[in-house]
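[job 4417] fold queue: 2 targets
>>> target A
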Amino acid sequence: MQHNRDGEQKLLNQFGRFSFLLIATFSLAKAGSFEDFQRVQNASFSQYKDKKDSAFESYLKSQWSEYNSFLSPSLYKKAKPKVILPATIKPVLSRGPSIHLKILKEVQKQSAPLLKTSKGIAVGFFGALLHFSVDAKVKKVRFYPQNKNGIMNAFSIFASSDYTVLLDEIKKSSKSMKLNDWGVYLLVQKIAGRTFNDRDDKKLFAWFLLNKLGYDTKVGIHSQHIVLLSRTKQLIYAAPKYTIEGKSYFSLSKNPISGSLYTYAQSYPNATKAVDFSLDTLPLLVQNTQTKTRTFSMQNRQYSLSYRYNKNLIDFMNTYPQVSYSVYFSTPLEKETLFDIQKSLKPYLDGKKMTYGLNFLLRFVQTAFKYERDQQQFGKEKVMFAQETLYYDKSDCEDRATLYARLVKKLFGISVVGVKYANHMATALYIPINGAGVHVHGKRYVIADPTYIDANVGESMPQYRSVIPDKFIYLR
């Protein structure tokens, strides 16, 4: 807290409040008239509710700098295999302790307790219709002129508006829906999108709200348009990255810009949080329950599993950029989905030996889904959560590895890691059987490859048997 106070005082002492400078020439492209511009200018001198805003506006008037982007690394060093040949079918071992699956108690469908109000703007959020109070003054903001003065104009109006009610509503809605940082970020984007039609005005409002919510967020200017930059806890792969004061910032929009932009160095006071993509607890979204049935084969016999899922959760997960594998591996399955899978598996596995159960799950993940690389299915690299892999009919190696790892960890309690190669991913289990293996922290783990069709636990694809993995991914 003392550090924050010192930072605020530094802003006040260093910059103070000084007069607003108009540029000599400007474009009227985004203003209806000179009167519109004058109205915005005059509004910038309104009384602020927070003394930090006065100091921060003064700081924004200082020298901005040009920053260049650098492309963050790709998830894979090489292209994934286009076709994966199946393994030679071998007998399935039956060793280890007997399996007795414990079925979780049937869970009741849940939806977030939404705020009871019909006032304000209506925002659609993954099946929910939420209402938020936006001060009428806010809606008058326009990014004009299209330079840093236009940003200061917008900030002045936002800071002098009645924004506290809106912030409180965002916090309450986020809490009731159990949103993680990414969920809060998306909610703010939705609110900004319903408040403004213009893309630059939307980004400016989102910038203001995110800063007020404590997230380290900046705006920059690229080709006279606003770029919203956020500091993230995890690396965003294959994305333009800007390093400012030793910290990494990313544009989290669907089509991020690359190249140079102009922005400022110091963050808004007390806005210290990096967006954390971890999803240790699933968001509580409106239920849109649907059902899938998957068929697979093992030892010339057909099996099927049926399970429920919430399509709104799938849509939420689909918004994720390419983040660290640990996020996907550590995200749980929906309780309803897990309950149905356990219930379907119990007749097949109870009384069987552990190695049989591990291979049974392996065969499910290997053969219930068609193998297809992300570029062919989505036109880009997309890592799936285990829940998404169960939803889509097609998947590739890391998607199957994530699903298999989650099932093994939850159903059998066995320690499992993701095994990442230059162009492939498998899993490895901490079990005492022979076969292809890897050493992790001095312990030997046995390979289980969910993409190598008909392979048993302990079998590795020939091309990876003598390859040292790039990294291991751990589950929480």
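>>> target B
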Amino acid sequence: MDIKRLIIVAVGGQGNLLASSVLGEAALLANVPVRMSEIHGMAQRGGVVESAIVFGDAKSTIISDGEADLLVGFEPSETLRALNKCNNKTVAITNLSPMPPFTVAIGKGVYPDLNDLQEKLRAKTAKLIAFDAVALAKTAGNVLSVNMVLLGALTQTAILPMSVEHTKQAMKNKTKPAFLDLNLKAFDLGYEAAAGA
């Protein structure tokens, strides 16, 4: 099978690591070789969290600049920050609900304009899927399910070699039973949003 390289970027507390774990489990269920690495940074304090996941018979989890087939950003400015990983065939998915960093809150930084941000992403990638994942998570019943909304959008692209069924089974295996129905609803909302993008 073709090797597929995925970068997921978020800030601490957005559920990037759970989403990565679900994808890894889905790959195993689909008998797809998978390798993962994570950079936690200052996750406890709202710092960047990055996951690199390589599907297929790759020897390394390193995704060099310009090598990502997919980029998923849980936070818009973090998506923009990871743009160097993309090329003109990359599909990028981003949440459009910002979580401005501390420097912006104290007036020492300026948050990028969301329209400019999307134009920069579109200019460098093959396709941009951009929507307010936080609003969809709230619709599903919990703002913390942003990760499952974006997982649904990612699955809808059909670029990764796992089916919807594999991913939903992985969600059942990896998430707490009390949150499963809500997470599945969030996943479906993200899937639908990406289909309409």
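[job 4417] complete. Note on B: The beta strands are 4-11, 34-39, 48-55, 70-73, 91-95, 127-131.
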